[in-house]
């Protein structure tokens, strides 16, 4: 990983000029130009729908621009596929997990790029040694022989990063790389990034975690509505500066309204709930009109508890009561029938129907309401979805566009609309703002506060401790599958939650 002697330091390692891309009537990018020098981390920030992912997908060859040119070491390049970009030493570690579940860590890291013997056969000894070298640079605690499906989400994310590094790329693209990582794993990743750029390579870094942006980057590009609106020096900019450029205005501070006048009787009572290897002896109450936060570090059992309550997995013991009646929830259909729904952490894998339109994704849980003599009444579906597009501020082109045409944050809002359309009474939200920008996060939290004033009850699961404090009334703290305590949010700090979790 050294800088080629023939390349002038003044020539960018990579440069894009005048990049534009439209999807139907939606102009995803308009005349965007940026560059990255050897030894630089170039951060790209913006609200959901700003065009960040589209730009990164163009740079790594997954998407072709409508217009514009790209240059690698000063020479013009054109990518028709990700393989073309990899041949130019550009690789991406995407936000969404994209591993082959039943293959081992080693096999995933060098999938399609295994070392070969003299007769073209795979040389597994050399392949394993090469894969291990890249894995250990990222995290040496991951079992290289474990199947990918057995790893935690954080470990899977790190394996994806190792796979990108294993392409011998000189330019890496990281898209929300720390969204699922613990502090220890994040520190390991940052150490790798610093070593990578010190060797004369470059990184495009996309993240909504503004502290990371200011800490890691040498240049910050801000996109808004597909347009480059600012290029900032992280040594001079502040988080407020970034947010102001991203939103086009000053974003108001979060209003922590925890009025309890509408909180009523318990709607969900959990007693001694356990599931071997995931959580044990969990007891709590969720009350009408309340947002109950569930906080804890990765591996605490938060997500596993949420899935068990929704019937995705079964408990080994314990009791659940919904609206005062004992509930034997063995399948999600049992939970839905009782007015309880779940918004998953992994929206791409567990929440979306990628071949369906925006309207169909929003209405899929309520198709029965729209049945007519000749099939579904699409005009009625469109009218109802439009009300949620407006109220949730979902940025779309046309409702008949595929759900995959939306940014991650807007996809999340469509899933939320799906369950609101069903008039559900209890929402279990697992990392509902993961990968969502500051402004969109505030919009979603404002919607949730409005919903609980109307009598809805919400379980809010998040690894972002300050976010749980901001939005919740009470906070249930978990650690390694155990309930460590329940605290009042208005009296809590992040330090308090961590101390309780580790006690």
Overview of the structural elements:
The strands form five sheets. The protein has a six-stranded mixed β-sheet with strand order 6-7-8-3-9-10, sandwiched between helices. The model is unreliable at 1-8 and 251-255 (pLDDT under 50). The protein is α/β, with parallel strands linked by helices and 503 residues long. It has 17 helices and 22 strands.
What is this structure, in a nutshell?
The protein has 17 helices and 22 strands. With 503 residues, the protein is of the alpha/beta class.
Structural class, by secondary structure, is: alpha/beta
> What order do the strands of the largest sheet run in, or round the barrel if closed?
6-7-8-3-9-10
Low-confidence stretches: 1-8, 251-255
- What helical percentage do the residues reach? 25-40%
List keywords for this structure.
globular, six-stranded mixed sheet, 503 residues, disordered N terminus, 22 strands, 32% helix, alpha/beta
How do the strands and helices of this protein lay out in sequence?
Layout: E1 14-23, E2 26-36, E3 41-45, H1 52-59, E4 67-72, E5 75-77, H2 82-87, E6 90-93, H3 105-109, H4 124-138, H5 153-165, E7 171-175, H6 183-198, E8 202-206, H7 210-216, E9 219-224, E10 227-232, H8 239-247, E11 266-275, E12 279-287, E13 291-295, H9 302-309, E14 317-322, E15 325-326, H10 332-337, E16 340-343, H11 347-351, H12 358-363, E17 371-372, E18 375-376, H13 378-391, H14 408-420, E19 426-430, H15 438-453, E20 457-462, H16 465-471, E21 474-479, E22 482-488, H17 494-502
Parallel strand pairs: 3-8, 3-9, 6-7, 7-8, 13-20, 13-21, 16-19, 19-20
Antiparallel strand pairs: 1-2, 1-4, 4-5, 9-10, 11-12, 11-14, 14-15, 17-18, 21-22
């Amino acid at each position: 990983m050294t800088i080629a002697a023939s390349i002038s330091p003044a020539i960018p390692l990579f440069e894009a000029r005048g990049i534009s891309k439209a999807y139907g009537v939606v102009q995803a990018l308009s005349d965007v130009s940026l560059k990255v020098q050897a030894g630089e981390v170039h951060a790209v920030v913006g609200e959901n729908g700003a065009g960040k992912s589209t730009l990164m997908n163009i740079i790594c060859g997954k998407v072709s621009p409508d217009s514009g040119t790209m240059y690698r070491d000063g020479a013009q390049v054109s990518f028709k596929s990700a393989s073309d970009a990899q041949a130019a030493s550009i690789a991406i570690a995407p936000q969404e997990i994209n591993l082959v579940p039943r293959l081992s860590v080693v096999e995933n890291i060098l999938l399609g790029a295994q070392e070969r013997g003299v007769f073209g056969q795979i040389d597994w000894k050399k392949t394993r040694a090469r894969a291990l070298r890249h894995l250990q640079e990222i995290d040496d605690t991951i079992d290289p022989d474990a199947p990918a499906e057995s790893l935690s989400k954080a470990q899977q994310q790190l394996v994806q990063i190792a796979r990108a590094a294993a392409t011998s790329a000189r330019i890496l693209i990281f898209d929300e790389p720390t969204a699922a990582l613990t502090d220890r794993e994040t520190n390991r990743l940052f150490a790798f990034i610093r070593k990578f750029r010190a060797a004369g390579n470059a990184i495009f870094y996309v993240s909504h975690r503004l502290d990371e942006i200011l800490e890691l980057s040498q240049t910050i590009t801000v996109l808004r509505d597909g347009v480059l609106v600012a290029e900032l020096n992280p040594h001079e900019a502040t988080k407020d500066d970034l947010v102001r450029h991203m939103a086009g205005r000053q974003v108001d501070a979060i209003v922590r309204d925890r009025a309890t006048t509408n909180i009523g009787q318990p709607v969900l009572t959990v007693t001694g709930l356990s599931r071997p290897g995931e959580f044990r002896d969990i007891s709590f109450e969720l009350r009408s009109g309340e947002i109950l936060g569930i906080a804890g570090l990765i591996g605490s059992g938060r997500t596993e508890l949420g899935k068990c309550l929704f019937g995705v997995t079964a408990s080994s013991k314990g009791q659940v009561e919904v609206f005062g009646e004992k509930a034997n929830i063995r399948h999600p259909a049992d939970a839905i029938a009782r007015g309880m729904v779940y918004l998953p952490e992994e929206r791409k894998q567990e929440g979306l129907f990628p071949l369906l339109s925006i309207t169909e994704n929003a209405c899929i849980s309520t198709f029965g309401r729209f049945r007519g003599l000749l099939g579904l009444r699409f005009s009625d579906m469109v009218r109802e979805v439009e009300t949620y597009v407006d109220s949730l501020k979902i940025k779309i082109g046309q409702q008949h566009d595929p759900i995959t045409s939306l940014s991650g944050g807007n996809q999340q809002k469509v899933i939320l609309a799906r369950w609101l359309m069903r008039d559900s009474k209890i929402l279990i939200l697992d990392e509902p703002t993961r990968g969502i920008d500051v402004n969109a996060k505030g919009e979603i939290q404002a919607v949730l506060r409005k919903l609980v004033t109307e009598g809805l009850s919400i379980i809010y699961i998040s690894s972002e401790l300050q976010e749980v404090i901001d939005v919740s009334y009470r906070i249930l703290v978990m650690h390694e599958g155990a309930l460590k305590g329940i605290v009042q949010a208005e009296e809590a700090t992040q330090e308090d939650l961590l101390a309780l979790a580790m006690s």
